[in-house]
Each structure stands twice: as C-alpha cells, then as structure tokens.
Specification:
By secondary structure, the chain is an alpha+beta fold. It has helices at residues 7-11, 25-36, 55-64, 70-73, 84-117, 130-136, 166-169, and strands at residues 47-52, 76-82, 121-122, 144-152.
Length: 174
C-alpha cells in the first residue's frame, strides 16, 4: 500500500508530555545531521542550531515561550536560528526576508521527522519571546531564533487531531 511509504509523516505528532528522561548525545547529533541535510535556497544553509540540555536554561526558555512548561520537560531543546544576512547576500531582500525562513522551516521539519523515526516526541514551538530567547542564549546579532523544538521521550498522543479534508485544501488544475 502506498500510504505505508509515508507512515513516518503520519505518525508524527506535537508532543507536549515529555517523560523528563535523557536522550543519548549520539541521537541528538543525529538530529543535527538531519537538520543540516534540509533543503535550502541555493544550498546557502543559512541556519545555526543551539542544542540546550541545561535544565536552568530550558526552564528559562519555557518561560520565554509564554509559560509552555513542557519545553523544560524535554531532554533537549533545539533552538533553530536564521541568518538572514547570509541569505540576503545571495538573494537580496527576498532571501533575507523569505528564503531564510523557508530554509529554517525545512530544517525544523527534518528535526521533527528524525525525532519520530528515533522514537522521540517533539514539538515545533513558534510562540515565544524572540528578544528574550536571543538574550538568554547570548546570540550574536546576525542570528534570529525562529523556532524552539523540544525533543525527548514522550507519552503517546492521547488522540489524533483531525486534519481538513484534502478537498478543502487543494484544487487540481489539469
């Protein structure tokens, strides 16, 4: 059956119930490897990843994420940063405003899918105080934190959230 070929994508869910267990460093490195193989405009790869395992800093990031405390419960939080200047060097304003965000989004998705493949829970967190996260991590001026991705052993999804029907979100033009 063709659907089995995309089973990994269908298994992925946003985990917000982490078990507070460690993840081997080798698995975290594998997630970084997955992120760096994401597609990017012109193969510019305008991203930088911080892997936060420090408990105090995870707590602070959870507070920066408007109190989403599950962020602190994850074994690690990948902070995905965009380097707009790098994209703009090649693609001008469109690169610095759009392509860089598309590229980092692809890297986030690779982390999420790789985490699922390894049996971990993960969640894409975009709702956070960007300035505070920038300050907490002491990021250089050229990096913009665009997503927090907590990863770790998680509880299975209690229920699957529904998706809109394909007919509602697509149109064939033949």
């Amino acid at each position: 059956m063709q659907r089995e070929k995309i089973a990994l994508l269908l298994e992925r869910y946003s985990c917000r119930d982490f078990r507070r267990q460690a993840v081997p460093r080798g698995d975290l490195e594998l997630l970084l490897e997955a992120a760096r193989w994401a597609p990017s405009a012109g193969n510019v790869q305008p991203w930088f990843f911080y892997v936060v395992t420090n408990a105090r800093l995870k707590q602070q990031l959870a507070r920066a994420a408007h109190g989403q405390m599950f962020v602190a419960d994850a074994a690690a939080v990948f902070v995905v940063c965009a380097n707009a200047e790098e994209s703009a060097t090649w693609y001008g304003a469109r690169g610095g405003q759009l392509y860089v965000l598309q590229d980092t989004a692809a890297a986030c998705e690779n982390i999420l899918l790789a985490a699922t493949a390894l049996g971990y829970g993960s969640c894409w967190v975009g709702s956070f105080d960007e300035a505070l996260a920038h300050k907490l991590l002491e990021l250089p001026a050229n990096l913009r934190p665009v997503a927090l991705v907590p990863v770790g052993p998680g509880e299975p999804a209690k229920e699957r959230r529904e998706r809109k029907p394909v007919e509602e979100i697509s149109r064939w033009i033949e």
